[in-house]
Design a protein that fits this description.
The structure holds 2 protein chains of 2 kinds. By secondary structure, chain A is an all-beta fold. Chain A has strands at about 5, 10, 20-25, 35-40, 45-50, 60, 70-75, 80-85, 90-100, 105-110, 110-115. Chain B is globular, with a radius of gyration of 13 Å. Classes of the chains: A mainly beta, B mainly beta. The interface between A and B is medium-sized, with 21 and 23 residues.
Chain lengths: ~120, ~110
């Protein structure tokens, strides 16, 4: 069965970086994209970015451009999201989700809480 | 970028009531519209894709309609287990914008 398993919770100080992983199983990794979504405490869902697991093409939310890097490792079927120069308003649960081409987000990871605090 | 506006932001209804949630786009994009359900403390779950296609296992009391700029999620007979926040999302291309969410509670 399709599963997306994310890395554990992280705590960082403002200005630091964090890298969240998303290990996929149960399907052909390179046939789908991975979307990252975040949810600040008590807030709604916010699209962070998307990466093609086939060719590494990536698109980030405009507000995060310059701070966000998404990558994939096809040898381990793992996607990564790295966010730099962290601020307190980056505190959120970060989700990865599978995105078939021209389709919506059908499988989601369990979420990774990233807390930015001094 | 296309903006997605959901209304209402919250609602309270009785068990058995018909509930309607609206999602309006700032410009049209066909029917690349999904609805997600997020129960408290849980991961979002895909309910409906392509504006009206119910996902496998989703109760038939849920339905979706619309195209272009105006979309609707309807719960025909609200059940206690439907307490959740519902989000629409466009997925025709980046950015994959979400609506602000509609919190559904039982009166």
């Amino acid at each position: 069965q399709v599963q997306l398993v994310q890395s554990g919770a992280e705590v960082r100080e403002p200005g630091a970086s964090v890298k969240v992983s998303c290990n996929a199983s149960g399907y052909t990794f390179t046939s789908y994209g991975i979307t990252w979504v975040r949810q600040a405490p008590g807030q709604g869902l916010e699209w962070v970015g998307w990466i093609s697991a086939n060719n590494g093409n990536a698109h980030s939310a405009q507000k995060l451009q310059g701070r966000l890097t998404m990558t994939t490792d096809t040898s381990t079927s793992t996607a990564y999201m790295e966010l730099r120069s962290l601020r307190s308003d980056d505190t959120a649960v970060y989700y990865c989700a599978r995105k078939p081409q021209s389709e919506s987000l059908d499988y989601w990871g369990q979420g990774t809480l990233v807390t930015v605090s001094s | 970028d296309i903006q997605m506006t959901q209304s209402p932001s919250s609602l309270s209804a009785s068990v058995g009531d018909r509930v309607t949630i609206t999602c309006r786009a700032s410009q049209g994009f066909g029917n690349y519209l999904a609805w997600y359900q997020q129960k408290p403390g849980k991961v979002p779950k895909l309910l409906i894709s392509a504006a009206s296609t119910l996902q496998s296992g989703v109760p038939s009391r849920f339905s979706g309609s619309g195209s272009g700029t105006d979309f609707t999620l309807t719960i025909s007979r609200l059940q206690p287990e439907d307490v959740a926040t519902y989000y629409c999302q466009k997925y025709d291309g980046v950015p994959l914008t979400f609506g602000g969410g509609t919190k559904v509670e039982i009166k």
